[in-house]
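Regression test case RT-17, inverse folding.

Input:
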């Protein structure tokens, strides 16, 4: 089954400075249903579990993952995601294709496709709340792909306005907040 054709809605899509294509969809699996996918050879995918619990088969490993867990799946790899119980599991799929040529050797050298369980990441307190660092590594599509979660105390700001050339995607997991964006033009 192709996730885009089953239980999926596109939230947004288009190019970025470094990406020829970026698409974010929201998806669900319910009642022991499952979805399988193979990442096209010119694309990577990042899955982010929004709510519920799922089992994820990636390569030879089976993972039980819940809300906040992520998977980065490199070109050509296959996976299956299935709801863990009768409840729904909702997740985002972020598909991206670099403007630079695919470098499968770089992605493989960095460790290949992987899953990170929210419950196995440390939350490090800071003066604004806390931070969970998920990963910072190379992939087949990116020289550097980084993901972290910031949890802010009430009336706190993560940082002031900033500019950088790289694309940044912010997903609000819960609560109410304000995001200030400055467009970078070359």
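Golden output:
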């Amino acid at each position: 089954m192709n996730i885009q054709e089953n239980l999926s809605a596109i939230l947004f899509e288009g190019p970025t400075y470094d990406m020829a294509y970026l698409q974010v969809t929201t998806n669900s699996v319910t009642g022991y249903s499952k979805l399988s996918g193979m990442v096209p050879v010119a694309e990577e995918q990042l899955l982010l579990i929004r709510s519920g619990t799922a089992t994820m088969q990636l390569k030879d490993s089976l993972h039980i993952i819940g809300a906040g867990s992520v998977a980065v799946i490199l070109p050509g790899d296959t996976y299956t995601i299935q709801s863990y119980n009768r409840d729904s599991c909702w997740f985002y799929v972020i598909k991206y294709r670099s403007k630079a040529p695919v470098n499968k050797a770089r992605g493989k050298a960095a460790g290949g496709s992987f899953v990170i369980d929210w419950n196995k990441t440390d939350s490090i307190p800071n003066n604004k709340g806390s931070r969970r660092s998920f990963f910072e590594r190379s992939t087949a599509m990116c020289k550097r792909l980084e993901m972290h979660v910031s949890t802010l105390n009430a009336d706190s700001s993560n940082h002031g306005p900033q500019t950088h050339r790289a694309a940044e995607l912010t997903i609000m997991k819960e609560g109410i907040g304000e995001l200030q964006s400055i467009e970078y033009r070359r």
